[in-house]
Amino acid sequence: MINNSKQSNDFPSFADKILERLETEKVTPNAKWKYSGKNVLFWLIWVFSVQIGAIAFASSLFTLFNAGWQYYSATHDSFFRFFIESMPYMWLLVLCIFLYIGLENIRHTTKGYRYSIPFILFCSVIGSLIFGVFLYVFGLGQLFDEVIGNRVPFHDTVVEHQEAIWLHPENGLLAGAFNEFNSELEPASAYNFVALDGKNWQIDTSDLRAQDFENIAEFSRVRIIGVAEADGGTKLFHACFVMPWGLKMSEVNVKRAKPLVLEHIEDCVTSGCEINSDEMRSSKCKDLRPYSSLQKMRNY
Question: Does pTM surpass 0.85?
Answer without folding.
Answer: no
